[in-house]
Write a structure and sequence with these properties.
The complex is a heterodimer of chains A (about 1000) and B (about 140).
Chain A: H1 3-33, H2 35-42, E1 47-51, H3 70-88, E2 90-94, E3 107-111, H4 136-140, E4 147-148, H5 150-158, H6 160-163, E5 168-169, E6 175-176, H7 186-193, E7 203-209, H8 241-253, E8 261-266, H9 274-277, E9 285-288, H10 296-305, E10 318-319, E11 334-335, H11 340-347, E12 368-371, H12 380-392, H13 402-405, E13 406-408, E14 419-428, E15 433-442, E16 451-457, E17 471-477, E18 486-494, E19 500-502, E20 508-510, E21 514-520, H14 524-534, E22 553-558, H15 606-609, H16 624-630, H17 670-676, H18 681-689, E23 694-695, E24 706-710, H19 726-729, H20 745-750, H21 754-771, E25 775-777, H22 800-815, E26 820-826, E27 839-841, H23 844-851, H24 853-862, E28 866-869, E29 873-874, E30 877-878, H25 883-893, E31 900-901, H26 915-921, H27 932-939, H28 947-965, E32 977-981, H29 985-1024
Parallel strand pairs in A: 3-4, 3-7, 7-8, 8-9, 12-27, 24-25, 25-26, 26-28, 27-29, 28-31
Antiparallel strand pairs in A: 1-32, 2-9, 5-6, 10-13, 11-12, 14-15, 15-18, 16-17, 16-21, 19-20, 21-22, 23-24, 29-30
Helix pairs in contact in A: 1-29, 3-10, 3-21, 12-14, 18-28, 21-22, 22-24, 26-28
Chain B: H1 2-9, H2 13-36, H3 50-68, H4 72-103, H5 112-133
Helix pairs in contact in B: 2-3, 2-4, 2-5, 3-4, 4-5
Classes of the chains: A alpha/beta (about 1000), B mainly alpha (about 140).
Chain lengths: ~1000, ~140
C-alpha cells in the first residue's frame, strides 16, 4: 500500500476513534451526573437484597395489597375513576327536564371538535395516559346506551388535523399550551352533515373544552397585535367566534331538528359562562365534567342517561365574565422598575467562595413579582361578600348586580331530583364542636345523593379584620336516597373555624365579639341569602336576588373575655403559640420595601380598592435590600458541637420501625440518635443532594433506594417498571399496563364525598404497591386563585377548607398502603407564569386563611407526611429557603412529621436555589441535582466549620430515613436482609464502550506512531545507501 | 504584489480550509460568548461553559501561530483538537437546556442563539477535520 494511502487511513483511524472516545467520555460525564434518574427511568436496579441467615420466620409484608393481580386492580381503578366522575360532575342547568335522556330518546349528535378530542387531563408532569381511554362516542355507545350520529362524528375525525386545537409560542419564550383554539366553522359543519340531524335529533350535545398544563398559564389577553390567537380578544376562557357560531346555528335548529341542546363543559379551567343562561343560545342543560381521567367519560354517559343522578357541587365560582374577578388585575408577572443589575453589582460581596452572586437581572425571574392585592377576597369570598354589602347598603360598595358577575356560585349544583330540608338545628355538643343537624328528604322522582354544606358568617367591623360574608366550615354527603326517603344529616363544625387571623394587632387567631351565623345552603350564595333573610332583608329591596330562608340559620352571640378571644391562638396539632410568621412576605411590612406599598382590597371600601383593569396592577420598584436578601448564604463558623459520624452500632433501618412490643419508635427516641450516629457525612449528603423521583440507598444501614413519581391524578406509570413492585416480583402478565389516571382535583373535590376520595387515595396507594413506588409527587393543594392557571386540573378548589378536607381524606387513603405523599407546591405557587423564582407578595391574613390553610389541613387531619415546596418566592425568599414556612409553620404549628423536597431542581433553577439555604431552613432534599458549587460548599463543612449546618444536614437525613422506615419501601426487608449495591446494566455498557474506544484509540495511535517510525528508519537507511 | 503572489504560490486547498476552520472557530467563539456570556437566558438556564470558550480561543491563537511559522500540519491538528474538545465542553454546558426543551414543559423549541452556536461549532469541526486530509502544500510542477 502506498505511504500516502496508509497515512490517510491512519489519520482517519486516529481521528475517528479519538473523536468517538471524546464523545463517549463527555456522554459518560453527563450520564453519571444523572445516573440515579437514568437508572430509575430505565427500571434498572442499583441494588439487590440478600437474606443472611434464616429469615424464613419473618413476615415482611408490612403493607399488603388487597388485590391478587394487576388485572383485578386495573378493573377496580377503572370503576373508581368512572364513579368519581359520576359523583363529581356538576349539573349547572337543566330546563324542561332536558336531562336525563330517557330510553328511546338517545339518538344524539355530538358537536364541537372537543367531542372527538376530549380533555382527559392536563399536560406536564401530572398528565394521564389516554391510550386505553374511551372516546366519547365509545363511552356513550357502551352497552348500546346511546346512538351517536356517525356522519357528524366522521366529519370531525376525518378533518381533525384541520380543526383540532393547537399550540403557539408566546413572545416571552415560554410556549403556551393555550394557543389556537381552532374548531370547525358552523357553516362547514352544517353543510357537510345537516342531512343526518333529523335521524339523530333527540339532542345536540355540544362539547366545549379547554386544556391547561404545567409550565404556562392560559392566555387572558393578546400579547401583541401579531398574536395569532383565534380566541375572543386573546382570552382563552371565553367562547371563540366559532363556538358562538356553532351555538347560534344550533339555536336556530332547536325545536325543528333538535329537541334539546345540551352543553358539556370539559375543562378544569372555568370559561366565562354568561353564555349558558343566554336565551339566544337556547341551551336546555349544561353539565360540567372537569377533566374526566381515563374512564370518566363512561360516567358522563351514565349521567346523561340518568343511570346516575348528578350530585356534584362547584368547587369554584363560575364567573359570568372572568374579568369581573379582581385577582385578574394582578395575574401574570410584573418586572420591578428600577435598575436591578447595578444594585446587584454594587452589593456583590467580595468574600464569596463561589463564583458570582445570585444572578438577578431582567433575564431571570428574581426581577419579577406578583402581588395578591385581593387579600382574602378570592373567589366566592369576594363575590358573596360584596353582594351582601350591596344588599345591606354598606358604604363605598358601589353597585354590584350579582347575576351580572357570577354565573354559578361556589357550592352550587343541580340534580335530576329535588331535596327538601327540614328540622334544622345547631347544638354545641362539646366545648368547641357545633353539631348542625338537618333532615334531608328526596321529594323528587329520581334517586340521588345530596350534599349538606354548612356556612358560617363571622361578625365584621368596618376597618377591622377583613372577613368574608360566608365561609364553608363543614359538609357531608348522603347515601343514595330513593324518592320519598328522608335521612338526618349531622355535620360537625369546629369552633376553631370561627376565628379570624388578626395580622395587625393581636398577630394571631382571634374570636371577635359579635354575632355568628351558621346556615346550610346549596352553595355560598344561598347561604348568604339565608343569613340576609335572618337579618330581615328580602328581594323587596330590589337588591337581593332571591328569598333566603331564616329557618335554616342559627345565630350565636359571642361576648368573650380577652383571654377567651385568644383560645385558638395555639396550634391544635402541637400546642405551639401562633404568631405572625410571614410579615416579610407582605410588601407593606417587608423591612427592605423602600417606598413600595400596596392597598389591599377591603370590605370597608370596595369601590376604592377593587381593581378590575389589568393596567391597574400593583407597581413595585426594586430596592437594594431585595438583592441582598436574595443572596445565597455562606456557612458561618460557629461553636456548635458537631454531630457524631461513623459510630457503628449494628442498627439497621428495619430495626427502627418498631420496638420489641411492636410499637412505633418515636422520632425523638434516643435510639434514633444512636442510629444516626452510624451514618457517614457522605451518606447523608448523598441522600439530600439528589432525589429526582427517588431517595438514595444507604447500604450500611440497610436502606434501599425508594422510588417516587408524579402526580396528583394518580401514578399513571407502568406497573412493571420497578423491581420493588408486586407486578415485577410476581411477573404479572399485565405488568406492562399503566396505572389509572383519575379525574381532575376539582372533580374529586366537587363530589364533596370524603369516603369516595379516601377510596381514590386507597386505589392510588394500591397502584404504588404493585408498581413499586413509595412516594407520590401529589396531591396538589395550591388554590384556584384564577381559572387561567395552567395547573388548576391538579388542584382542588378556590376554598381552602374544602381543598384541605378533601385532600386530607385522599392522603389517608394513599398512606394507608405505606405510600408517602409530597403535597405540592407549598405554597402560593398558584400560577405557572414566572413560577421559577417570582416574588409572590401577600398579607399574613390571606396567607394563613387561604393559601397556607390548604396545606395545613392535610397535615393536621390527614397526617400528610411530606411537602414539595414551590418554585416561587414568598416575598424575596425562595420557598425552599423559607424557615418560617417549613420549620415554623409546617412542623412547628401543623406537626408535619416527614420531610420537604424542592420542586424539580435542574439547570434553570441553579441561579436561585441553594442547598445551604434550604438545609438551614429545614428543607431536606433536592428533587433533581443540586449544583456542584453549592454541594462543594456544603462539603466544606464536613469536618469543621458550621455545626449548625452539620446538624441541619443530619436532621434532614433523619426525617427522610424516618419516613422511609414507615413506608412500603420496607416490604420484604427483614432483620436479616442486607442491601448490596450493584452496577446497573446501562453503566456497565458505558464502561465497556469507554474501554473499547480507548483501546481502539490507543491502537490507532500506536499503529500510526510505529508506522511513522518505521518509515523514518527506512528513509534513513535509504539515504545512507 | 510579487510577494503577495508568492505567498499564495505554494498554498494547497488544505491551507485555505484550515484558515476557514479558524475563522469559523472565531465566529463560534464570538457568537457563543455574545449569546451566553452574560448569564442565563431561556428558562433561566446558564449555558455558558467558560472552559469551552477558553479552549476554542487557545485553539485559534495556537493555530494562527503555527500557520505563521509554517507548521501547517500541526495547525490542522491544533484547530481540530481544540475545537473538538471545546465542543465537548459546550455540549456539557448546554445539555441541560436541550433536555428541558426535550421534556417540553417549560420550553418547546430551541432558540436561534443555541442553533447558531451549534451550527457554527459543527461547521468548524467539519472543516477542521477536512483540513487534516487535504493537501497543505500545492504541488509545483
Amino acid at each position: 500500500m502506498k505511504r500516502s494511502t496508509t497515512v490517510k487511513l491512519q489519520k482517519a483511524a486516529v481521528m475517528t476513534s479519538a473523536s468517538l472516545l471524546g464523545i463517549m467520555l463527555a456522554a459518560s460525564a453527563i450520564l453519571m451526573d444523572n445516573a440515579a434518574v437514568i437508572s430509575s427511568t430505565l427500571g434498572q436496579p442499583t441494588f439487590r437484597t440478600e437474606v443472611v441467615g434464616d429469615g424464613s420466620n419473618e413476615n415482611t409484608d408490612y403493607y399488603p395489597s388487597s388485590y391478587k393481580n394487576v388485572k383485578s386492580l386495573i378493573q377496580a381503578g377503572r370503576e373508581m375513576c368512572e364513579e368519581t366522575l359520576e359523583e363529581g360532575a356538576v349539573l349547572l342547568k337543566n330546563e324542561n327536564n332536558a336531562l336525563p335522556l330517557k330510553e328511546g330518546n338517545r339518538k344524539i349528535s355530538l358537536f364541537g371538535v372537543t367531542s372527538i378530542d376530549p380533555v382527559y387531563g392536563g399536560t406536564g408532569s401530572g398528565q394521564v395516559d389516554v391510550s386505553t381511554a374511551p372516546t366519547l362516542k365509545e363511552a356513550l355507545e357502551r352497552d348500546n346506551l346511546f346512538s351517536v350520529n356517525p356522519e357528524l362524528w366522521n366529519f370531525y375525525t376525518e378533518n381533525a388535523a384541520l380543526y383540532k386545537r393547537g399550540t403557539k409560542r408566546s413572545p416571552t419564550g415560554f410556549d403556551t399550551i393555550a394557543g389556537t383554539l381552532n374548531g370547525a366553522p358552523w357553516e362547514d359543519v352544517y353543510s357537510a352533515t345537516n342531512g343526518s340531524y333529523a335521524t339523530y335529533g333527540d339532542a345536540a350535545i355540544v362539547v366545549l373544552g379547554r386544556i391547561g398544563g404545567e409550565g404556562s398559564d392560559l392566555d387572558i389577553e393578546k400579547f401583541n397585535e401579531s398574536d395569532p390567537s383565534d380566541s375572543t380578544n386573546g382570552d382563552f376562557l371565553r367562547l371563540t367566534p366559532k363556538e358562538k357560531g356553532l351555538l347560534e346555528g344550533l339555536a336556530k335548529l332547536k325545536g325543528k331538528t333538535f329537541e334539546k341542546i345540551i352543553v358539556l363543559v370539559n375543562t378544569a379551567n372555568m370559561i366565562s359562562s354568561d353564555f349558558i343562561k343566554d336565551p339566544a343560545y337556547k341551551i336546555d342543560a349544561a353539565l360540567w365534567i372537569g377533566t374526566p381521567g381515563q374512564t370518566g367519560l363512561y360516567g358522563v354517559a351514565d349521567l346523561l342517561a340518568g343511570k346516575t343522578t348528578p350530585s356534584g357541587h362547584l368547587t369554584d365560582t363560575i364567573w359570568a365574565d372572568n374579568l369581573q374577578n379582581p385577582v385578574h388585575s394582578n395575574l401574570g408577572y410584573y418586572a420591578y422598575s428600577g435598575n436591578i443589575d447595578s444594585s446587584i453589582a454594587s452589593t456583590a460581596p467580595s468574600d464569596k467562595p463561589y463564583s458570582g452572586p445570585v444572578i438577578i437581572g431582567n433575564t431571570t425571574n428574581s426581577g419579577k413579582y406578583l402581588v395578591y392585592q385581593e387579600g382574602i377576597y378570592v373567589g366566592y369570598r369576594y363575590a358573596e361578600t360584596r353582594y351582601e354589602d350591596y344588599v345591606t347598603g354598606r358604604a363605598n360598595t358601589g353597585e354590584f348586580i350579582y347575576n351580572d358577575v357570577v354565573a354559578y356560585p361556589f357550592g352550587y349544583g343541580a340534580s335530576y331530583t329535588q331535596f327538601e330540608y327540614s328540622n334544622y338545628t345547631v347544638d354545641k355538643t362539646s366545648d368547641h364542636i357545633y353539631t348542625v343537624t338537618v333532615d334531608v328528604e328526596n321529594i323528587g322522582t329520581e334517586k340521588g345523593k345530596e350534599v349538606v354544606q354548612v356556612y358560617l358568617q363571622k361578625p365584621y367591623t368596618p376597618g377591622g379584620i377583613e372577613k368574608a360574608a360566608v365561609e364553608l366550615v363543614g359538609f357531608e354527603k348522603t347515601k343514595i336516597l330513593d324518592p320519598g326517603e328522608k335521612v338526618k344529616v349531622s355535620v360537625e363544625v369546629d369552633e376553631r373555624d370561627f376565628a379570624s387571623y388578626d395580622a395587625e394587632n393581636k398577630k394571631t387567631y382571634v374570636l371577635e365579639n359579635g354575632t355568628y351565623y351558621l346556615t346550610v345552603g346549596n352553595g355560598a350564595h344561598e347561604a348568604v341569602n339565608n343569613v340576609l333573610a335572618a337579618k330581615g332583608h328580602s328581594p323587596s329591596s330590589g337588591k337581593m336576588d332571591a328569598d333566603g330562608n331564616k329557618d335554616f340559620v342559627k345565630a350565636y352571640n359571642f361576648n368573650l373575655s380577652s383571654e377567651d378571644a385568644l383560645k385558638y391562638s395555639w396550634s391544635e396539632a402541637t400546642g405551639k403559640k401562633i404568631e405572625n410568621l410571614f410579615d416579610f412576605a407582605d410588601i407593606n411590612k417587608y423591612a427592605g420595601r423602600g417606598n413600595n406599598s400596596v392597598v389591599y382590597v377591603s370590605r370597608n371600601n370596595w369601590e376604592g380598592t377593587v381593581k378590575l383593569d389589568r393596567d391597574d396592577y400593583v407597581k413595585l420598584e426594586w430596592t437594594t435590600q431585595m438583592g441582598k436578601d436574595m443572596e445565597m448564604k455562606t456557612p458561618k463558623s460557629d461553636n456548635v458541637e458537631y454531630p457524631k459520624f461513623g459510630q457503628n452500632s449494628g442498627l439497621q433501618l428495619i430495626d427502627m420501625r418498631q420496638d420489641e412490643n411492636g410499637d412505633e419508635i418515636p422520632f425523638n427516641d434516643p435510639l434514633w440518635d444512636t442510629f444516626m450516629d452510624q451514618l457517614l457525612w457522605d451518606d447523608m449528603v448523598t441522600l439530600l443532594k439528589a432525589g429526582a423521583r427517588y431517595t438514595a440507598a444507604i447500604e450500611s444501614v440497610g436502606k434501599i433506594k425508594t422510588l417516587d413519581h408524579n402526580g396528583p391524578m394518580g401514578l399513571t406509570e407502568k406497573y412493571g417498571n420497578c423491581v420493588n413492585g408486586l407486578a415485577a416480583k410476581t411477573d404479572d402478565p399485565d405488568k406492562n399496563s399503566r396505572a389509572m389516571g383519575y379525574p381532575a382535583g376539582g372533580i374529586r373535590a366537587s363530589s364533596f364525598n370524603k369516603e369516595l376520595v379516601y377510596n381514590v387515595g386507597n386505589m392510588i396507594g394500591e397502584d404504588a404497591l404493585w408498581a413499586g413506588y413509595s412516594g407520590l409527587y401529589g396531591p396538589g393543594s395550591n388554590i384556584h386563585r384564577s381559572p387561567y392557571s395552567g395547573r388548576n386540573y391538579e388542584y382542588y378548589s378556590e376554598d381552602p377548607f374544602l381543598s384541605g378536607m378533601i385532600c386530607a381524606e385522599e392522603v389517608k387513603g394513599m398512606q394507608s398502603h405505606g405510600m408517602y405523599v409530597y403535597n405540592k407546591h407549598c405554597f402560593m405557587n398558584d400560577q405557572e407564569t414566572a413560577r421559577m423564582g417570582v416574588c409572590t407578595w401577600a398579607n399574613e391574613q390571606a396567607i394563613r386563611e387561604i393559601y397556607a390553610k390548604a396545606f395545613a389541613i392535610p397535615v393536621v387531619k390527614g397526617d400528610a407526611k411530606n411537602v414539595m415546596v414551590g418554585y416561587n418566592r414568598l416575598g424575596v425568599v425562595w420557598n425552599g429557603a423559607c424557615k418560617e414556612m417549613i420549620t415554623d409553620f409546617l412542623r412547628g404549628e401543623c406537626g408535619m412529621t416527614g420531610f420537604a423536597i424542592t420542586d424539580m431542581w435542574y439547570f434553570q433553577t441553579d441561579y436561585y436555589m441553594s442547598i445551604i439555604d434550604m438545609m438551614l431552613a429545614g428543607c431536606d432534599m433536592v428533587d433533581g441535582s443540586a449544583s456542584a458549587s453549592t454541594v462543594a460548599l456544603l462539603n466544606e463543612c464536613k469536618t469543621s466549620g458550621s455545626g449548625e449546618l452539620a446538624w441541619a444536614v443530619r436532621n434532614s437525613a433523619k426525617r427522610i430515613l424516618y419516613t422511609v422506615a414507615h413506608s412500603n419501601a420496607m416490604n420484604g426487608i427483614g432483620k436479616n436482609t442486607r442491601i448490596i449495591r450493584i452496577m446497573p446494566l446501562w453503566q456497565k455498557l458505558v464502561v465497556v464502550a469507554n474501554v473499547v474506544l480507548g483501546v481502539l484509540t490507543l491502537a490507532s495511535v500506536s499503529w500510526t506512531m510505529i508506522s511513522y517510525l518505521r518509515y523514518k528508519k527506512n528513509e534513513e537507511q535509504d539515504r545512507q545507501i | 504584489m510579487e510577494g503577495f503572489k508568492n505567498f499564495f504560490k505554494d498554498k494547497g486547498v488544505g491551507y485555505y480550509v484550515t484558515v476557514l476552520a479558524t475563522v469559523l472557530a472565531l465566529a463560534t467563539m464570538i457568537v457563543y460568548v455574545s449569546y451566553y456570556g452574560h448569564g442565563p437566558r431561556e428558562a433561566n438556564i446558564d449555558c455558558m461553559n467558560w472552559v469551552a470558550f477558553y479552549l476554542i480561543l487557545a485553539g485559534i491563537v495556537l493555530t494562527v501561530a503555527l500557520l505563521i511559522f509554517n507548521q501547517r500540519f500541526w495547525a490542522t491538528v491544533s484547530i481540530s483538537l481544540f475545537s473538538f474538545v471545546s465542543l465537548l465542553f459546550y455540549i456539557y454546558g448546554v445539555y441541560g437546556y436541550v433536555s428541558v426543551v426535550a421534556v417540553g414543559i417549560d420550553l418547546k423549541t430551541l432558540s436561534p442563539g443555541f442553533l447558531a452556536c451549534t451550527i457554527l461549532y459543527v461547521l468548524t469541526i467539519v472543516f477542521a477535520y477536512a483540513s487534516v486530509f487535504l493537501k497543505q502544500k500545492k504541488e509545483i510542477k
